Every structure is written in C-alpha cells, then in structure tokens.
Amino acid sequence: MKSLAGIGKTDRERMAAILRATKGTISVDEAAVILSASSSDAAKMLARWTKSGWMTRVRRGLYIPLPLESRTVDVMLEDSWLVAERLFDPCYIGGWSAAEYLDLTEQIFSTVVVMTVQKPRDRRPTIKGTTFWLRTVPEKALFGLKAVWRGQVKVQVSDPARTLVDMLSDPALGGGIRSASDMFSAYLRSGDKDLELMIQYGKMLGNGAVFKRLGFLLEILAPNETTAMDLCRENITTGNSRLDPGLKADKLITRWRLWVPESWGQKRNNVRDRGRTSKYKLTF
Questions:
Q1: Within this chain, do residues 137 and 225 fall inside the same structural domain, yes or no?
Q2: Per-residue pLDDT, 129
Q3: Rounded to two decimals, what is the model's pTM?
C-alpha cells in the first residue's frame, strides 16, 4: 500500500490553480496551459504529484486528484462517470447503469455501461478498480438523452424510455431479459411511463426486434395496452428473433415472430388463466 507524501508550498499553489480550472480530470495539455508551462514540465509535475500520492493516472496524459481524506493511492474512482465522459466522449451512460440512476432497479452492478461513438479495442477496460463495458453506437443514435451534472461536468445519460429501448434492442444491456423485464415493469409503474415515446425511439433506432420484444412483454406485463401492442405489430420486421440471444429458446410465438424459452411461454399462459388476456393470444 502506497502512502501519501507531503508537497511543498509552490507545488500546493500550482495544484490548487489546476484544480480550480479543471473539472474532475486533468490532462497534461490543460495543466501546461493553466501554469503557462511546457507540456514536458507539466507532465513531470503531474508525474511527481502522482508519485507523492496526490494524483492518480487514469491513462497516459490524464490524471484525477485523489480525495483529500484518502491516506493511500489505492482507491477506487470517486466518480466513474466523469472519467467515462472524458475518455469515451461522444458517449452516454446507458443500460443497467442508467437504470440504477433512474431508480428502475434495486440491483447493484459493478460495471459501468457506456454507449460510445468510439471503437475501442478493449471493450471492458478496468480503470482504478472500476470496470467499464463499452458499446459502440453510431452518432445518429445519440438521442433520448438527458444531461446530469456531476460536480461541474455535464454527463449524458439515457432517459427512461431510451434506457428500456436499448435493453429491448440488446437484453444484455439490462443484465439479460429477466432483469430487463423487471426494469420494464418498474417503468410501467412509474410516472415516466411513455409507450408512445418508446415506440418512437424504436423507430429511430431501426431495430425490428425491439417491437417484437416490447409487444410480447406488454402481453405479459400490461395486457390492456392494446394501442401500444398494435403499434408494435405494425413495426415488427420479417424473420424470427430471440427474446434473449443469451437464453435457449424452444417456443416460437408466431404473432411476434419471437423464439422464447418454455418458462416465458408459461408466464403468458398464467396471465391467460387469470383472465387478463388481451386480444393478442399466443400461437405456438
């Protein structure tokens, strides 16, 4: 375990100037401009402060200050979202990470989901103890977002409807369809519920599987939402999809062109047995 060392008055003044002028992360170029120094001298200062335990390096040329109360440099990132915004921009926080923020789940996920325009080689980098899962999206898919302030920095997060649409496009973003359906159920009970907006986002995303999964889940979770199910039917694409590509599927629901596991077919049957069916009946 590496402990913090003291620094002199001049270094304290320089560091204070940098911290006042930056927003959570510090690059060599920023430090050079703030201190009117060369990039080489700025890099040496940041490296010296890192060695003394006042900074920690996130990647080459990028640093973050350690919390004042820290007695060691062996700490987790204080705010992983700030680092994500700096390293992977243009991007947004999505999937289960957005769902946690939006109170759509009580589950705790250790990995931060970042939807980025970048195409990184390492899709699951671990930075100072925090693992990021990077998913590449086209720039035109940067819609349905809301700005969240993290200190002095605005970070983009998917709004509730977009968060669920992303999960319906790829259930893995919700931790699998079982977890994603629980989040969808919470969404349906929330004041943010807006199925028309979800359908609009689905069209903008251009993935027909979204409507297959959405329509099927509505049959189970909200069978009275017939208008939304009609719109889903109008937008499903040809070909059969899986409810969750990560699960074995042995039942084909022809109405939704969707392969589902046996257990999910039973869930729909249970709804029917309770007398809460809609006009959409499953056909196997």
A1: no
A2: 83
A3: 0.80
Cβ atoms 115, 91 nearer than 8 A:
yes
Task: Report d(CA 75, CA 97) in Å as an integer.
Answer: 21
Specify whether 222 is located in the same domain as 144: no
User: Which of 202, 229, 250 is the endpoint of a domain?
Assistant: 202
Owning domain of residue 123? 79-202
Are both 95 and 172 inside the same structural domain? yes
The pair of structure tokens assigned to 37 is 């120094």
Q: Which helix (H) or strand (E) holds 113?
A: strand 111-116
pLDDT at 176 over 90: yes
What pLDDT is stored for residue 217 in this prediction?
A: 97
> What six digits make up the tokens of 124?
């699951």
In the chain, DSSP finds a helix count (H) and a strand count (E) of: 11, 12
Peptide bond just before 125 cis, omega within 30 deg: no
Token pair in block for residue 278? 């809609």
CA distances from 68 to 30, 53, 72, 92 (A): 21, 10, 10, 29
